[in-house]
Amino acid sequence: MSNYVKEITLIFSENPIARAYLYLLIKKKLFANKVIYLNNKIIFNEIFLKLRYYTTFKNTLGYLKSKNILSLVKKIEEYFNLDKDFLIEMYKFENIYKLKNIEFAKHPDINNKLNINYFKNLKEENFLNTNNNILKSILDTKKNFYHIHPGYMYKVRGADGTLNSIKYHNNVGATFFLMDKKIDNGKIIERFEKNFKKIYFPDSLKLKTSDLYNIWFSFFDPAIRVFLLNKMLSEDVSLENYKNINLSIEENNYYKFINKSELRDLFINIINFA
User: Fold this and answer.
1) Can you name the CATH fold of 5-272?
2) Separation between Cα atoms, residue 68 and residue 63, nearest integer Å
3) In this predicted structure, what is the pLDDT of residue 93?
């Protein structure tokens, strides 16, 4: 059984997080890593894949045509020491074909009984999850499911991790942890946090709040997660290297999604609109 992050199996759901992790594996030349596409298709059908891709990233691909938004993307890459154009190249459709070992799960719901049987029969033991569903019955397979949360656990748990980190703590961070049936509550392998500095984004006041939110979670959110994953891959971190955390003195907060009425003011506070 493999116990290193560099040999983990990626559970792929079509979203920015999965695209970021997939592209990082390509950049690291980890072509042998298994990727499990979480859907009920049993054949690698290009029409299906393209339909899912363009449906999911219609807005994101539109953002990448804007010079102002591209300038923001480049600043986010610099902020997290990502390679030039990483956050652009990760959205190329054809990246899905560059890993050799890819297969489909049996159902789009990871907790579905078909997937429970499917995962039980896999020889792999360690999985990096990118699915948005809360893991429940799938954990009964006794496999190890890991996740990168966009907040410094346990100080920042719950929804809108990056935004709540900035709102309440004026920092950003991420945590790689072993998932259990409680939300953002498992054993921690690695984590980091740093002070947040405003990012210059010219003409962004012209955008709707919903677009600012989507842009944030298309680029900043996956960037902070892939920054931590890249660090762990570079350091060849073991999945058995749990942090010894004193929960009696550790700050522990659970945050909900930020109210839509507060989002505009929050973005004004965290982005330099000059």
Assistant:
1) Rossmann fold (3.40.50)
2) 9
3) 94
